[in-house]
Specification:
With about 220 residues, the protein is mainly alpha-helical. The protein has two domains: about 5-95, no CATH class; about 110-219, Rossmann fold, CATH 3.40.50.720. It is about 50% helix and about 5% strand. It contains eight helices and two strands. A two-stranded parallel ribbon has the order 1-2. Helix 6 (about 130-140) links the parallel strand 1 and strand 2.
């Protein structure tokens, strides 16, 4: 675990806890200069690499003058519940997990949740090993699952998984349309066009094809 960048996460947690500890005493809305606030968040992108802890500190310092104590006891506007300790903790934890069921590198957590709620699942992935893992995880909770190996950027493959759902379970009630890839991490000037095309194909076209070909089955 020594290679995990813990310090910026711990710093963010400390800043968040400090804010919540003091929120009851904070002014509900501090007077601030909108132009100054915009300036704090603006400016050129640094030429040199900025450490993650410094980024967190810069964000906190820039945002501080414009924060409204919506989580405090003297704020009477609307209630979201997002600043409840359990909600904040769950949000941080799930953000750290970064789980997406359609990615081979991630867990089948979403499929298991749907199965727990009684859904019959058609799982789709290009990676058959990932599908095998998902089947095993769903089986633990007694769920019903059918798998289809397919490419979400292919209209024929998308039609095939929709038809599999209709043939196996009688239709489609929910489309968990979340296949996605990150692509390489490169600067704008050096980003390969082929990689860009692939990211757009999966993350945009794949979502569109899912909606396009599932619409009739959901009517």
């Amino acid at each position: 675990m020594s290679d995990v960048p813990r310090s910026p996460l711990a710093l963010a947690a400390d800043l968040g806890v400090s804010f919540l500890d003091q929120v009851a005493e904070r002014p509900v809305a501090s007077p601030f200069d909108l132009a100054a606030l915009r300036h704090a968040f603006g400016g050129p992108v640094p030429e040199e690499e900025t450490g993650p802890g410094v980024v967190i500190e810069m964000l906190a310092a820039a945002a501080e003058p414009g924060l409204v104590a919506t989580a405090g006891p003297r704020y009477f506007g609307f209630v979201t519940g997002g600043a409840l300790p359990a909600a904040v903790g769950a949000d941080w934890l799930t953000a750290a997990w970064d789980q997406r069921v359609a990615l081979g590198i991630s867990s089948p957590a979403a499929a298991v949740r749907f199965a727990r709620e009684g859904a019959s699942i058609v799982a789709v992935d290009r990676d058959e090993a990932s599908l095998t893992e998902t089947v095993a995880a769903v089986a633990v909770v007694g769920g019903r699952i059918h798998t289809v190996a397919g490419d979400v950027t292919s209209s024929a493959d998308v039609k095939a998984y929709v038809q599999a759902a209709v043939d196996t379970f009688g239709g489609v009630d929910v489309l968990f349309n979340n296949a996605g890839i990150e692509g390489v991490v490169r600067s704008l000037e050096t980003y390969p066009e082929d990689d860009f095309d692939q990211v757009i194909a999966v993350n945009v076209k794949g979502v569109w094809l899912g909606m396009k070909h599932t619409a009739d089955a959901m009517r």
